[in-house]
Amino acid sequence: MNSIIEIVPTQKKSFGKTKVPGSKSYTNRNLLLAALSNNTSTLSNVLESDDTKAMIQALRSLGVKILKKNSTLKIYGADGKFKQPSKPIYVENAGTTLRFLTAALSTQEFPCVITGNNRMQERPIQDLIDALKKLGVEIYSEKKNGCPPVILKGSGIKNYQTTVNGDISSQYLSALLIASPCAKKTITIKVKGKLTSLPYIQMTLQSMKNFGVEVKHDKNFKTFTINPQKYISNNISIESDASSATYPLALAAIHGAKIVLENLGSKSLQADIQFLNVLKKFGCKVKMTSTRIEVTGPKKLRPLGTIDLNKLPDAAMTVAIVSAFAKGKSKLTNIGNLRVKECDRLHALALELNKIGVAVEEGKNDLTIHGSPENLHGAIIETYNDHRMAMCFGVVGSKIANIKITNPQCVSKTYPNFWKDLSKLGVKNKPIKSKQNIILAGLRGTGKSTLGKSLAKKLHWDFIDTDILIEQQTNQKIAQIIEHKGWDYFRRLENTIAKSLSSKKRVVISTGGGFFTNSANTKLMRKIGVILLLTSNKKVIVQRIGHDSNRPRLTKEKDLEKEIEKIWNKRKNSYFKASDICIDTSEQSKIAQDDLKKKTEQILETLSNSKLLEK
C-alpha cells in the first residue's frame, strides 16, 4: 500500500450489515491459555493481526505446536511447561503479548529474554516487574529503565503474595492472573489504587474459567486468590472485536445513518462495548441482542459535556473523533493511560484534531474538544505508526473532504483489512502520488511570494508568481486591470495562466488570494503539484499589507482587519478543499531572515515526511 492515501467522503445514509474481525483481547488471551492447557484446543474466528502473529510466533518459539487454517487455529497445549527458546523472544510492538508472556515465563525454570521494536522498548513494564519480584522471580529490565528488553533468570515463583498498581494498565493484573495457576502454591494478588479498565479483568477471568481455572476475588476486585490448577483444553469461537467495532459504529453516528453489526452483542464482556452507551449520549439510537447491534445516528449530534472514559481506553479515541462533529464542548476525562500506548495518544489526538479545525485542550489526563462541524476541513494526518490513529481519521475522512492518511498500513497491528472493509461500506480511498511542483495558496500577506522564492532557491527550482505573470502579460498593474475591466475579467486571466502552467515541472508557484475560488483552477493545480495553504493571524496580515496600494480592496469595509476576516470566511472552504497541507505563518521575530529560513525548512520537512513531493 502507498505511504499515503486520501479518503473519499460518502453521502450514504445506510451502511447495511457488517462484521469486524475477532477480538484481539480474546484472541491473545485464548492463545496463551490454550498453549498452557493440557491438550489440544481449537480457536475459531481468530483475529489475524500483527499483535496476534507476535503471540503465535512467540508460543511456537517456546515449543508450542500451532496449526492454522483460515481464521481457525489448532493449538497443542504444553500442559504448563514450555521449552527454552533458542534466542530472545521478539514481539514487535505487541503490548499484551509481552506483558502476558513475561508473567507466564516467570513460572518456568529456564532463562530467557523478551523484547520488541524501538517503540516497545520505550513502553513501561516496571510495575509488572516489581509485582513479579515480590513473588521471588529473578527479573529485571536490561537497560534498567523499566522498559523491555526484560531478562528472566529462570528462578520460577518462590513467594506467594504480591501487589500490583491498578491505575496504570489492567494488563499487568491480567498477566499475573493468567500465570498464577502454574505456580506450586496458592498465590494472593492485591491491587493498589483504583483498578483501571475493570472489564478487561472480567474478560481475563471469564477466559480462564473457559479453560477450567477458577479465581476467587472479593466484590471490589481488590484481592485475588488463585490455587495451583491445570488449564483444561477447550474449543472457543471468538466474538468480534468491540474496539474495531467502534469505527463502523462511528460512521453511522457522524453520518446520521444506520448500520448493523453482527457477531457482537449484549453479553460481551469487552470493555469497549460500553461505547454504545456513549453513542446514546451523542443522540444515537441503539438496539441490541446477544449477537447483533444496530445503531442509527441522529440528524445532529449532541456534545457530551464531561464524561469519564477510564473503562474504555481504546474506544476513547473514537469518542474524541465523534466529538469533533458534535457542536459544543465534550470533555473526555480519566484517560491518562492513553499516553503509554502505541504512541502518546492524548497528544497525538490533540495535534491531529487541531489540524482539521478542531479547538482542543490537552490536559494531563483529559482532552477537551470543542466540536465545530462547520469548521472541519481536510489535512494530512500523521498516524505515528499507531493503528487506532489511522482508523479514527479514516472515519473522519468519510465525512470531511481532503483527509489524507500517512502510513495507512499501520492498521495491520489489529485490523489488517480495515481499508478493504471500509471500502465495502462505501468509504473508498485512493493512493496519493508524489507531485513535481509546489503551489502556494492563501490570502495576501501570508507570505506566498516571500516563502515561494525561498523554497525555489532551496530546491534550485524556478519561481512563478501568478499575479506578476498577469501584470507582465497585460503590461498593467492589477489595480489598473480591476479598475478598467473588473474582477470577472481578472479571474478569467487567472484561469488562462493556470492552463499555461499545467505542463510545468519543478517550479514553485505563488497564486493570488482568489485564485482557488475558481474550481477549474483547483482541478488544474491539483494535477500538477502539492498545494500548501498558508494562513496567518489577521493582525499580522494587517501589519504586512497595510501600505500595499497595488491590490484593490475587495469589500466596502473601511477597517482592513474586518475586510480580511470577511474575505477569509468567504474563501476558506475553497482553500481547504484545494490544499494538501496547511501551514501557519503568523510567527515572526525581529529577524526576518531567521524566520524565513525556519519556515522554509519546516515546509520542506513536512513535504518530505508526507512523501507528497517528488524529489
SSE map:
Elements: E1 4-7, E2 14-18, H1 24-36, E3 40-44, H2 50-61, E4 65-69, E5 72-76, E6 89-90, H3 95-105, E7 112-115, H4 126-134, E8 139-141, E9 150-152, E10 161-165, H5 170-179, E11 187-192, H6 198-210, E12 216-217, E13 223-226, E14 235-237, H7 242-255, E15 258-262, H8 275-282, E16 285-288, E17 292-296, E18 305-308, H9 315-323, E19 328-333, H10 345-355, E20 359-362, E21 367-371, E22 379-381, H11 387-397, E23 403-406, H12 418-424, E24 429-431, E25 438-441, H13 448-459, E26 462-465, H14 466-474, H15 478-501, E27 507-510, H16 519-528, E28 530-535, H17 538-545, H18 560-578, E29 581-584, H19 592-610
Parallel strand pairs: 2-15, 3-14, 6-7, 10-11, 18-19, 22-23, 25-27, 25-28, 26-27, 28-29
Antiparallel strand pairs: 1-23, 1-24, 3-5, 4-5, 7-9, 8-9, 11-13, 12-13, 15-17, 16-17, 19-21, 20-21
Summed up, the helix count is 19
Taking strands numbered 1, 2, ... along the chain, how are they ordered across the largest sheet?
Answer: 26-27-25-28-29
Strand content: 15-25%
| Radius of gyration, in angstroms, nearest whole number | 28 Å
Distance between the amino and carboxyl termini: 20 Å
Please report the total strand number as a whole number: 29
* Helix content bin: 25-40%
Give the helix/strand class: alpha/beta
Weakly predicted, low-confidence segments = none
Shape: elongated
The largest sheet is: 5 strands, parallel
Rounded mean pLDDT score? 92
